[in-house]
Amino acid sequence: MKAGWWLLLFVATLRSAWGQVLPDTARILCGTVSLTPAQRKLLEGAAAQAVAQRQADASAPTGITYVPIRPHILRRSDGTGGYSLTSLNNVIALTNRYYKPAGIQFFFAGTTPDYVDDDALYASFESGASESVIATRNAANALNLYYIQAFSNPGMGGYSYFPANDVRSTQSFIRVGSDDDLGNRLIPHELGHIFNLIHTFDTSNGYEQVSGGNCKSAGDLVCDTPADPTGWPQFPDAGPDCVSGCPSVYNCTFTESGTNAQYRPSPTNIMSYFFPCTHDLTPGQYRRIMDGLTLRQTHTAYSLTAPSTDAAPVTDLSAAIVSGQVTLSWTDWNSNEMGYFIERSVTGNPADFVCIGGVGPNATTFVDGHAPSATTVFYRLRSSNSTGSWSNVTSIATPVCRPDYAYGCQRYLTGIGGVTIDSRVLSQNSGCAASGFSQSATVVPSLTAGRSYPFAISPINRVNAMRLTIWADFNRNGSFSDPGEQVYQTPASTTAVVTGSLTIPPTVSPGRVSLRIISVAVSADNPTDPCGSYEYGEAEDYQLAIGSISDVVKTVQNGPWTDPAVWSVNRVPATGDAVTIEHVISLPPAQQPTPSGQARRITISPGGKLIYASGGVLRLN
Ligand SMILES: [Zn+2]
């Protein structure tokens, strides 16, 4: 009944031009051991029966079903080592986000994790043999999650069990790793098997057709997950390398024999073997998870009824913006919490809160690095071993988002050294911002809507090739993501100074506009998200001052050029303005070297007249 085992595949190690080794990117592959067709038939029959019974009883759960997880953490015999409580809370909080659409939220059973202090198991956990050693540890009223330091098979990353009326089927074994991978992929995937989800590419029930015609009986038995040829013997190249980029896309071309139809698997599905930048499950998979829960609730060898811990709600939850990020703080009255789950909503409606992260016991702060930009956001939290006891709700208006970097610019000096727009030097030898992100107070003055300006961006070093994307918040709504706001991308990665042209759309109204430049180094792709997470590189924000809108500077009355009241924009025309004269306008003597008046272009309408006084100078530029 083992659902899966995991392999590690190390991609080619990248070496920087400085001779230092960049971090390895580990790819965890899941090699499946599926049920036999006979076992699968029995299990599907049992699930269908449980669902039919539930419908007959009209006992379908409404709202949220809280499912207890008993955490077991392997440590050395002396009690050292092992998975941290902070990560333990954080990864289940992230997992909760993926299970909300199924009406499932996990909480921890107990007030502390079960610590398995055993040097031998800590050094090497062997599926099968080691399981019998820890079998007495299983709670009979919860799912049992074991946090493994190392499997005896060094390529194994984790496995779990499909539903069965056996307490062992409640076990998942997770090799500890990054919060991002465990919370967004590995644990949601293994718990998917726990609730009867099958790999999208499974063939033990037959090959799913591209048309989906046999989707109810073949593949993963779910009809809204397209056929996925990963690992099929007839397509030896179908695998994780077919998916790249962010948003992730499936790049390989495999066609179905007989129909010539092309396979288009989802590159982001949690039950696939892909490693995308975002992860999801389909409505069909969520229905199957709900049915899997219903089936497990009929089992008698164990239950999912471990009680919630009666924890006192935290109070005084408040939010502040610190270094551009939402920082929560609260007062912790508890002595029996296993940690806290933090939830966020953009409406404040209780039904809309979604788990976004977790912290360990006695923590009193949390930084939300992924709050939506320029929005009012609401927060609340609960003890992670409680199903209620919510804190007060607090809200705060978030600032414009900022990108973040895992490694930034400092280690290899892979950043932006200088920026010039319209021959104005905005920064020069600016070095590396500590976080990889800086906001400059430098303003590019008097740019004009409807015109284009040359820019040049120089790298700090000319060794590591970089890619650049530039955005401008032309409509000033706090977001760089509106149509037309991405204004430049490098055509290829380069070690040279990047030059190009920045066009201000004619519709931009006068005033300040934020400009964002994101550079990435050692990347196959241009930055695509103005608020995204990157590895190496640097981002810088500047301000553009848009001086006027072309072709709307007109006269409204007779008078001297230098009188603001003469002009439709209630100011004297500036460099870059296209001016239309419909009245009698006099140009007074110039105060050299300043001319009497400036404009980009002048149109004299019928009835309009421009009279030069002696010494009057008009400069067109
Ligand atoms: Zn799996």
Your description of this structure?
- With 621 residues, this protein is mainly beta.
- It folds into five domains: 221 residues, Collagenase (Catalytic Domain) (3-Layer(aba) Sandwich), CATH 3.40.390; 77 residues, no CATH class; 83 residues, Immunoglobulin-like; 146 residues, Immunoglobulins (Immunoglobulin-like, Sandwich), CATH 2.60.40; 68 residues, no CATH class.
- The strands form ten sheets. Strands 3, 4, 5, 6, 7 and 8 form a six-stranded mixed β-sheet that branches. Strands 18, 21, 23, 24, 26 and 27 form a six-stranded mixed β-sheet that branches.
- Strand 11 and strand 12 form a beta hairpin.
- Helix 1 packs across helix 6 and helix 2 packs across helix 5.
- Zinc ion (ZN) binds next to strand 2 and helix 5.
- The site of zinc ion has 7 residues, from strand 2 and helix 5.
- GO terms for molecular function: metallopeptidase activity.
- Keywords: Signal.
- InterPro entries: FN3_dom, FN3_sf, GEVED, Ig-like_fold, MetalloPept_cat_dom_sf.
- This is Fibronectin type-III domain-containing protein.
- Belongs to the peptidase M43B family.
Short description:
It comes from Spirosoma rhododendri. The protein is built from six helices and 35 strands.
